Amino acid sequence: MSKLWGGRFTKKTDQLVEEYTASILFDKELAEEDIQGSLAHVTMLGKCGILSADDVDKIKDGLHHVQGMIRRGELEYNVSDEDIHMNIEKALIDEVGPVGGKLHTGRSRNDQVATDMHLWLRKRVVEFVGLLAKLQEALIGQAKNNLDTIVPGYTHLQRAQPILFAHHLMAYVAMFQRDIERLQDSYKRINVLPLGAGALAGTTFPIDRHFVAEQLGFDGVYENSLDAVSDRDFIVEFLANASLIMTHLSRLSEEFVLWSSTEFHFIELDDAFCTGSSIMPQKKNPDVAELVRGKTGRVYGNLIGLLTVLKSLPLAYNKDMQEDKEGMFDTVRTLQGALQLYAPMVATMKVNKDRMRQAVNQDFSNATDIADYLVNKGLPFRQAHEVIGKTVLYCIQNGKFLLDLKLEEFHQFSKLFDKDIYEVLQPEHVVDARNVYGGTAAPQVAAAIDRAEAKLQETNGWFEEYFEKSR
Ligand code: ARG
Questions:
Q1: Would residue 210 show up in a list of annotated catalytic residues for this protein?
Q2: Distances from the Cα of 164 to the Cαs of 59, 142, 168, in angstroms?
Q3: Segments making up each domain of the chain, as ranges
Q4: Is 23 a catalytic residue?
Q5: How far, in Å, CA of 130 to CA of 87, rounded?
Q6: Do residues 183 and 124 lie in contact, with contact meaning Cβ atoms separated by under 8 Å?
Q7: CATH architecture of 367-425
Q8: What is the distance in A from the centroid of ligand 1 to the CA of 181?
């Protein structure tokens, strides 16, 4: 059979044009959703009396047959049929004969492709909420095991103040919580039906868009037919959300890479999540963390790519919009890969508590606390800061840490120092002194873990409910 749109043409399409404009090599990913959408559409055509019950049955049987062929990998896709929509329609007509040509009544590929993308993306967004919850669970598990592990906290990658390692990990749980909530919120903008917009203006047939929406589990229909076929905001929004998730994963990756270096030696990633060197036998490289950090680039690229495609497009559909797909598929694959690996990699990571403790003992991250100590004895903070600055300099020049100083040495800098300074300088004391909501004191971190676990339960409930709804 010739092209589905061949009537207007007198010449064959140039072979290179066919290859250049076809999307079947990548949009075959939408096959399931295309059939799902067509089944709902044809059911509606029957219900509205636009097609006879008999035609509807034949078309539905044919669509199920084509679906089976696709699932078994038996359908041969043709570049000359351009995209998944026309490949499926062609296969349908091959199967049921000319009646198959009635499926496209009251519909355009423009509202069809948009519908497929909405159906496809909503499933993936729900899956990502589930994957993020798994990662949070792994992080919370490690946090619970490290409620007594003290580690230097950094600013400017310089040791700043000691914190609980659990507190550090829970910062990532908070980031991923925002990511989860962003995805959940985006669902309501994805879950809107474009079908029924036709090519751009609606259709002359007495269709029922709300009935189609109901069958497909959409919460509503697009208000404006031009917007329905031109809108790719929901994909941009997903790519932006994915970019932020990758930002968070990349920051964590950077920390893993640093922490597993000999210089830090704070953690050891499990052998199953590292690789070796082909020349240096001693090497164990944190490749997964590095690759996640590296792949963040392509995810950002896909976001900028689509924004750029859309920025000057006149309404309504333009062929440029076919460029919305590969970036979205690539981002979904990239994010899936990263999240699937990260949860078990975090869960199996070994934490070198002793090494972390040793690092804390050999730094000046308790300096703020002696400044606060002097403030509590009546010295204005600025003066206290100056005094401790001089004390630290003295330590550095004499190869000592604050806890090594004798009381007489402290007295060179201020007479306000007393014996209790040695208690104040203990890392445990320093950590527990930050007993403010959201701070690093052990009871605060334990409370934060409780709150995070309650949210995790909520997320798991949401996931179960929407997993069904989104299929
Ligand atoms: N393959 C096309 C795309 O992905 C489907 C829509 C084609 N519409 C059209 N009027 N040529 O964008």
A1: no
A2: 63, 12, 7
A3: 13-105, 110-355, 367-425
A4: no
A5: 33
A6: no
A7: Orthogonal Bundle (1.10)
A8: 32
